[in-house]
């Protein structure tokens, strides 16, 4: 219900916003290069439990706090510490702003701002997977994350969530299709708007199979057919994802997604992210072609083994 | 955009040959991955590691109407075995003739040459050929890899009845197979100047519980001076087939 | 060595036959073709081209080259031809049951299998070669001679080492009857011709090779593309179909030709049942002179059947496996 109110408020904003020209096809124009960078976390921090929204002053204070905490560009400490803080603010692109609505979490439903509990099977699966990856962290590529393997980047999802950097994506529209092009890892989702059915259920895809339609001024994208090898925060192949895009001003979009996966989560859950227009262009992210890290991680582990006489 | 694939709603009036029949002459090719797997399939890694992405299987939404091939239970098991051993068993690996309908959707062009008395289809893959007899040739005198094709016109659709197919060919690289009771009926209909709609009904009571259909558009090659080149391929598989029989250098 | 003999047959398809002396009646076919081509106009296809369509056979007892004993004699008389044919048929027939099993294997192909035809060419020329006038293939150039001898030596010395020691026919890659140019062979001498408004198809039964030849005047493919059967282009000169073929692969050799072979074939229907097929070999780096042969194509009611050579190529596996087994035994 809280989520519905928030959405209604945003739609109201959209409707009352200055005239936003439609595309040639007559639909709301979502085109452009956008960033979803924000310092607002997905889940409400423990110390803000029970506080769904900041006041304006609280938001400003929070932003200042986060800026100081994130800036790890100090030269104190030794060489080891230096390597651990290898990424500093020069590299990060977390943004500096909380979301406009000053919510303390991106999750708007459940109201406590947290991902609902796992089902027992999902709990088991997630724990086993975590244990396996710890035990086999340097045995081979499958011990690394999909991002480290340059297969899939978390920012692209779907759903799209802000990450440490390159939070940029581009939307293109024709009358029959919408394309969402994520900078990392040059992932383009081409979403048909023609009412065609999803692909057969035996075809499983990393980014699922998306179909879109317009609901008034909202673009609704519905995605199924996820691969067994993809897990969003514990989701499984039965994930049914619904994303909504609404243009709220010339330079802002509201992006909302709902995760519905009854074999993984005990309840569906929804998050909203304010998206702002950003200067482009979208650059090429040739992840795999430059993936020295993977080779070095594995080679390093093999060398360490040799040294240890294993 | 591609021309509509629905043969029923096309009001296309095809160009005609001198004897008044729809003109199917030209070089055509399917644009799908049915040769890998005629059913819908996601991409997957290849079987030869050293080929990397060049040997990986591309995805496809499938060409089987209804999605699934209606195998009889025992046959479904055989398909699984075929699939598990496809590198050894797929006749395409050994450059064997592809049979019908696989020849239609091999990733190579083919040429239709239409004369008054016959229609010839020459496939670039393996130089396979079929003569479609338009003069009621009677039953197949003997089984063959490419079958015995008898054609006639139904309105503007070329209907080809194929019998006499041996049991040696597959439908794709995924192990989909048939017996020598296979009976294929093909339909070729021009849907647009450069689009030929192709349908085939497959019937084989020894393998499938009922007849089933595949369909796809075939696209004309429009490049200047398009022609088939040779892909005999027999010479490319000699090492594979006879390599273990080579004389070893004396020690 | 028997295997070698068969291989030799495969590689050199128009063996020189011995003369015969018995008589046979002159055929009606011969009489018809003595009427000149100019007197008979072929029917036209629906597209208005001279109609060459149908299934034709080039079986004949006439050898490619004039036998040494007939040097200087360009044509036989009707009586001489009849005698020759009778004696020849008797001599070459291997359908005998004497000699024991080894001899039997050597004669494993008898007249049931063979399709040599039972007549000479209608004009009774003593060779298929019509030019040079001596009816023989001109001498090879020194380079060609060397190349041919080297190939022959290789195949002799490595006859069972691997597939490369066998002929292209035994390897089911290319068959001599199809060429191009087309010459009669021991069997399956059938060829089907189809015509559309802008292509002619020559479909040889062995090895299901279809040459689909454009008539639209386009150029040959670029010189970097070489093919076993070359690259063909055709045009009409009056009622004669002229096919010009270049871009042969360096792996293909017709009687010693090389990749520079330029072949011209002419097809003229001279009667309802006969196409006069003539080919000219021009290959200055291989032959010291161009040479021409004429092979009549006679209509047949047969259909062309599938020849799945490679799929049934047990012979090559067995030849090599046999050689390996023999080595083991030593």
Give me the count of strands of chain A: 10
Shape of chain B: globular
- Provide mean pLDDT of chain A, rounded: 87
Oligomer: heterotrimer
List the chains of the largest interface with their residue counts. B-C, 42 and 50 residues
Strand segment tally of chain B: 9
Give the N-to-C terminal Cα separation of chain B: 64 Å
What overall geometry of chain A do the principal axes of the alpha carbons give? globular
Instruction: Give the strand content of chain A.
Output: 15-25%
Helical content of chain B (DSSP H or I, runs of 4+): under 10%
Give structural notes.
The complex is a heterotrimer of chains A (310), B (251) and C (330). Chain A has 310 residues and is an alpha+beta fold. Helices cover 22% and strands 22% of the residues of chain A. In chain A, strands 1, 2, 3, 4, 5, 6, 7, 8, 9 and 10 form a 10-stranded antiparallel β-sheet that branches. Mean pLDDT of chain A is 87; it is low at 14-18. Chain B is mainly beta. A 9-stranded mixed barrel of chain B has the order 1-2-3-4-5-6-7-8-9. Chain B is globular, with a radius of gyration of 19 Å. The model of chain B has no long low-confidence stretch (mean pLDDT 93). With 330 residues, chain C is an alpha+beta fold. Chain C has one domain. Helix content of chain C is 21%, strand content 20%. The longest helix of chain C has 16 residues, at 142-157. The model of chain C is unreliable at 1-37 (pLDDT under 50). The chains are: A alpha+beta (310), B mainly beta (251), C alpha+beta (330). Chains in contact: A-B, B-C. At the B-C interface, strand 2, strand 3, strand 4 and helix 3 of B face strand 3, strand 4, strand 5 and helix 6 of C.
